[in-house]
Amino acid sequence: MIPDHIKNKILEKVTSIQQFGMNDLTWDKEEAKTLITSLMPDNIGILGGSVYKIELNNLIPLYDNWYCNPIANETQFEFYTRSKLKALAYIDKYPVHPNETILFSLVFTENIDL
């Protein structure tokens, strides 16, 4: 179970997309980067994520995504760090044009099989 202090970070600036029939948590580019940076010292990893666009009040999956799997001989903390750095790099490089609403979902994990 994710500790409350981590849950609070995750939920602080979340953008709900329930109005579009999705039970996913998303963040805009800057909020996603801020969240991941704030989670760097925490025992949680990011398995990957997806990208959505809101256009004309519709949620459009962009079919852009990334993933991060544990590798052999990697400690849990090393995976957590690497997975967050990979998510941060992907989101940072993702192009977002002015007046465009792009949202990123993140898949968190506390437990990994090494």
Explain this structure.
The chain is of the alpha+beta class and 114 residues long. The chain has a single domain, classed as Ribulose 1,5 Bisphosphate Carboxylase/Oxygenase, CATH 3.30.190.30. The protein has three helices and five strands. The protein has helices at 4-12, 29-39, 76-93, and strands at 15-16, 25-27, 45-55, 58-67, 101-109. It has a five-stranded antiparallel β-sheet. Helix 2 (29-39) runs antiparallel to helix 3. It is globular. 20% of the residues are buried. The mean pLDDT is 94.
Instruction: State the order of secondary-structure elements, H for helix, E for strand.
Output: HEEHEEHE
Strand line-up across the major sheet: 1-2-5-3-4
**What is the total domain count?**
1
The rounded Rg comes to 14 Å
* Largest pleated sheet: 5 strands, antiparallel
By DSSP, the count of extended strands is 5
The level 1 CATH classification is: Alpha Beta
Helix content: 25-40%
> What is the helix tally?
3
What do we call the CATH topology? Ribulose 1,5 Bisphosphate Carboxylase/Oxygenase
Straight-line distance between termini: 19 Å
- CATH architectural designation: 2-Layer Sandwich
Please state the overall shape, judged from the principal axes of the Cα atoms. Answer: globular
What class would the helix/strand composition place it in?
Answer: alpha+beta
Into which percentage range does the β-strand content fall? 25-35%
Overall pLDDT score: 94
Quaternary organization = single chain
- Report the uncertain regions: none
